[in-house]
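Q: I have 887 residues here and want to know how they pack in 3D. Can you give me a structure?
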Amino acid sequence: MSSLLEAVRAGRTAEAVGLLDGLTDTERRAFLPELKELRKELRKAPWEEASHRAYPALHAAGAACETGAAAAAAWIAATDMRWSRSSPALLIHILGDRDTAWLADVTHRLAERPAIAGVPYELMAGLVRLSGCPVPTTSTYVQGWVAHTGQLWQRGDTLFERLRRDPHLAELVAALFETEDVAGPMEWASAEDVGGWVDAIARLTAGGALDRKSTVDACVARLLRGGSTLDHRAFLRALKALALTREEERQRTTDWLALASDAVPTVASHAQSVLGSLALDGELTSRRLVEMSDAVLFRPEKKLVRAQLVLLGKVLARDASAVAELLPGLAPAFGHEDAEVQERALKLVERHLKKVRSPEVRAELAVAADQLIPTLRARAVETLGAAPVTAASTVYEEVLPPAPEPARLAPAPESAVELAEELGVLLTTEGDVATFERALDGLVRHAYQDRDALLEALGPVVARRWWSSMDPEYVQRPDNHFSRTHHSFGSSAFGLDLLLATVHDKVRTGTLHEGVQYGHRGGQCRHSALSRAFDARLWEVAYRLRTDPLPFLLSTPSWSTGLLEPDELVDRLDAYRRLGARVSAADFAQALLRVRRADRAAAAAAAERAEALGTTEGTRLARWLTSESPTLPLSRRRASETRVELEFGELLDLQEDFPAEFRALGRPVTTSSGERYCYHWSQEVERHWLAILPERRELVAARLVRDVSAVAVDDTRGAAAVLPLLAESDGVAGQATHLCVAYGLGARHPEDRLAAVDALLVLAARGQLDTARLGADLGELVRSGAVKPSRLAESVRTGAATGANATIWGILRHTLAALLADMDGDVKPAHARALGDLLTVAAACAERSGARGELPHLAQTAARGGSSRLVTQARRLRSALVEGVAV
């Protein structure tokens, strides 16, 4: 037994396997206890240790000694040995003498593992050959088959030839159409495999190796089921390559209708073209065409809607007998958001209405005409007998979401077990400000009250943290992980790791003292002032956990936004006084920055109580509460390339009597800050920055402008997620806040634009939105090229769809005033082509809200010749502003 363990420890895989050859199952099982002990030992060893060379030998030996199918599969697929496994060929050799039923069991257990387990396809396929079992059709096996088969180009043959020789071709291709995440590997092809998988499947079907009906049905069913964009693209290509006959298309009419209704645009467009071809050949009934129109005309994709109107126009012109049945199918287009779609639909109705004898059809269309924009509705009154606009229908009411209310923080978890559960969730999800602050306060309280009970409860939580297995000698080394990285926390979870590691004596006291004494060591970027304050409190709390535990935190907020009620802070200082506890400087500084001062009456009353405490901190709090309300620093706008940014001046009140790590919050913010050395990659920590200065969001926004601008200028993703939280924060919503929202409205990715729209609506609901400022900012950013008009149009259209038409119009009137001014010159600006989209949204908002008045430079644009979208929508907006009709 010692010889086997010695060979495994030394990494001599061949020797270890040789020692196990010829042994019985009983003899092999006898080695398992020591192999499992070695595995536990290796798990705890630092990753860089040389002992990890034993893993391949350990992996092979364990697979040979496990005699149960479930245990063998678990050992082979073990996560801790994933990166140092023995080769598939060696494992197949080791398992080759087992019973075929046992091998089949192991094979299917491995195939049922998730793909992330990384079980090699070569191993599973080899076991299928050894056992003769049915080929697995799990997603893991099929994904492995696709990737492996597509990468064998070095053999000199083609993918088609490799697939044709595969004995399990039919079963695996059938499973291919039911497996997720295979489209990517299907798109890979070598130079010899022109067309790749799509071409190979089509040729195999044409040659009879695959049943045609089954393959076509599976392909259509896959498109009906949906999936990723990549999946749709790959399987749509496969369907087109199969070149369906007219009979095959006609048999699947129901499927095409479903795809035209609900599939992604590319697939829906193909289904629409198939149905359109059937309709024009007279092979699609009028009832089916109406059913198709009802679905497609409700879709938001203008290209699909316009194609459907063209199709209806062709069928109506060919078949006069179908007019009475088809014409009501145009009614959904009357409610489309695009005015051009509405006009096309109305023109079709006007052109063919005279062929209709039924008064019911005319009445149905007249009712639907209520959805038309005012100018088109006026035409419908004459042609359809639609109800005219009355005074009652012109009353407009703005619809805004209710202003969000901050949530009260619940008390810290009472039991150590409950605290441990919350910390476990926080370490994996980051959590919001309220959850983080409650857990932080709870950790401090329980460490002060009963450290042993806390350690016992935290056992399962910290067992798998990266620092938990650090050797005590390594902890004392000055180059351990916390020593090297304490200059900046990448996330709030890292800060919790610091505190938990401190409680478990995994951080040197000297490291903690160094963090408190010398503070931030990262690069000087726009965020460094915020990160320094955030880090300073955590390092000081960690140091006090080790040297002089705090009974609780003074700075725990009262509300989810980070605000702290002044009376609560006075109560906490009083409790400190009675306990004789020493106040933490950073904790108290954060409490001062969070305490509510906007309510001057409440602040004054709390100041009297604080002064009466007779402590240094009480006096400092009283002076802070009765000082002048927070003011904004002097600011100026700076243009850099396509960006517009802000620079803020100095604030002395944030530098006097504050610890060194907090004074940077009051220092100037400039555009020349060293972004190149910014380490703040985690967007989750931004919510905690807002909670540092909950009544001064402009100071935070000024430091976030550069980040948020990247979602529009550089097409990055995610930085606008902070905007709704910025809108929910307190303090003046000034230039920085509005500029952040402006950039977000022009973001590349829809989720960022949606976050900006949410922020805009929250500011409007709270009465804090300056529409003139935001509109002017957007005009400037569009003109500079930072914001693309098409993206902005999508954002404002989304905002208007919620019912905030007057708000959106209030913004756009200032944006358009700047952009239309550029149209008066001889050279068209870059934004001219997309300006029609913005005018469309503006016209719709003006019509719905009943806006009136003049818009500078609109008349000149409306007076241009032609019927371009720009000119047409300019005329529509001019008409709306003159007539002031709301619908």
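Q: Anything worth noting?
A: The radius of gyration is 35 Å. Confidence is low (pLDDT under 50) at residues 483-491.
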